[in-house]
Write a structure and sequence with these properties.
The complex is a heterodimer. By secondary structure, chain A is of the alpha+beta class. Chain A has one domain: Glutaredoxin. Helices cover about 50% and strands about 10% of the residues of chain A. In chain A, helix 1 crosses helix 2. Chain B has a single domain, classed as Glutaredoxin (3-Layer(aba) Sandwich), CATH 3.40.30.10. Chain B has 9 helices and 6 strands. In chain B, helix 1 packs antiparallel against helix 5, helix 4 packs across helix 8 and helix 5 packs across helix 6. Chain B is globular and about 55 Å long. Classes of the chains: A alpha+beta, B alpha+beta. At the A-B interface, helix 2, strand 4 and helix 6 of A face helix 2 and helix 3 of B.
Chain lengths: ~190, ~230
């Protein structure tokens, strides 16, 4: 299974129910195609929720601060998702419902297992999104994964992936969509120029 | 008009500092820098690391919080190295309120943008070399002086008006939905994180055409931007 995360290939971990992941699929698909970078896209079960929730209970003022900050963060994330939907041309209420998410995850898993690269895959994936449809009122999320998907998930976890979208290139990990320039530099062996 | 929220103990604010400052020359603007003092214990737990390399840090962080923190430092360090900066992880969770008040004071005292930039640059660089205690009045005063700024009245300002202004500012920023650094306030939009710099530039250029994708630009060979 580890061989599926071969070196010299950019691996992208996504949750199809996560709008930022969809944005990452689109952007990296175009980017990988433009620069001839081999790309594999794996479905990944991210740990939901805010890590701040792990902070032990504090005094009243600390609890108030935690609650206000959590609210600010949640509101900001909603705004970011709105920007991502705009970027993708998706309707404002777009949500990938669980069943659709599972089908998209299974498709990504199978394609990544058999294709050498998924560069340029966005148009195909976009068609599937439209074909599978989305339910604007359903709650998002992917509930069920196959055993094989679970295995690749664990391989990704073992490599330090904990959220989506995340990129993996050899020993380098990148969280979020903002690192494409640096990932390309890493791929070309030009990383970390001083 | 561009407002940027920063905190001298944030690795992400540190690696964005030079890039953000370069916007002043590029767009002929004066950035309104505001301090947002992160209460790290409130969202990432607390931890203390002794000077012995082999000893494990103590504190109340969960595995998930450690994963996030460790990734953040690894990530920020990549970009620090790009810029020839030294980024050492702090050995404790700091309260940077006093250094933030120093920024408010520096904004009042600086007669040139260079003085303000010198103060900010030095705060960041020394903190991430573990040479600057952000909670020390003497240390903050020393860096203000190094930047050529008067410190006459700073101690009193820090103990009264300055700290009150800073704490009131924290409340207002939280009300506005700001919770991390660097955060950019431009054209009534809020952007958290350096990956939005290309989009901030797009706003400063009049928001013409489609907004660019998020990217982490860094300074190019001639000091130019390399947006995606």
């Amino acid at each position: 299974m580890g061989a599926r995360l071969a070196t010299g290939i950019v691996h992208l971990a996504v949750d199809p129910a996560d709008v930022e992941s969809l944005m990452a699929i689109r952007a990296s698909s175009i980017w990988a195609s433009e620069y001839s970078i081999p790309l594999k896209i794996w479905p990944f079960q991210r740990e939901l929720g805010n890590p701040a929730a792990d902070v032990p209970l504090g005094d009243t003022s600390m609890e108030r601060l935690k609650a206000r900050r959590a609210l600010a963060r949640a509101n900001y994330r909603q705004m970011e998702e709105k920007r991502a939907r705009e970027y993708l041309g998706l309707p404002p209420a777009f949500v990938v419902e669980a069943e659709t998410g599972e089908r998209l995850a299974a498709w990504l898993f199978n394609e990544s297992a058999v294709r050498e690269s998924m560069a340029g895959i966005w148009p195909e994936f976009e068609k599937l999104l439209a074909e599978y449809g989305c339910n604007p009122t359903a709650e998002g999320g992917v509930n069920e994964w196959s055993a094989e998907q679970g295995e690749i998930n664990q391989v990704l976890v073992d490599r330090g992936i904990y959220t989506t979208p995340s990129f993996l290139l050899d020993d380098h990990r990148f969280v979020g969509i903002g690192h494409l320039l640096l990932i390309r530099a890493c791929f070309l062996g030009e990383a970390l120029r001083d | 008009m561009l407002t940027v929220l920063t905190d001298f103990k944030s690795p992400y604010a540190f690696v964005a500092n030079e890039l953000i400052w370069s916007l002043e020359a590029r767009y002929n603007i004066e950035i309104d820098w505001l301090p947002l003092s992160l209460n790290i214990a409130s969202f990432a737990g607390s931890a203390t690391k002794s000077e012995k390399k082999s000893s494990a840090p103590s504190g109340n962080r969960s595995d998930r919080q450690w994963a996030v923190i460790r990734y953040a430092y690894m990530d920020a360090r990549r970009y620090a190295e790009n810029q020839g900066l030294t980024l050492m992880g702090p050995r404790q969770v700091w309260n940077s309120d006093l250094a933030c008040v120093g920024l408010l004071w520096a904004k009042r005292q600086a007669s040139t943008r260079g003085q303000l930039k010198d103060f900010m640059d030095t705060c960041f660089e020394r903190f991430f070399k573990r040479q600057f205690a952000v909670d020390s009045l003497d240390a903050v005063s020393g860096l203000l002086e190094e930047a050529g700024l008067s410190i006459d009245g700073f101690a009193e300002f820090a103990a009264s008006e300055g700290m009150a202004e800073h704490l009131e500012l924290q409340e207002r920023l939280l009300d506005k939905g700001c919770f991390g650094v660097p955060t950019f306030l431009v054209d009534d939009e809020v952007y958290f994180g350096r990956e939005h710099l290309a989009r901030v530039c797009w706003h400063l250029e009049g928001a013409k055409g489609d907004p660019p994708l998020k990217a982490y630009p860094w300074l190019g060979e001639e000091g130019s931007w390399e947006p995606a």
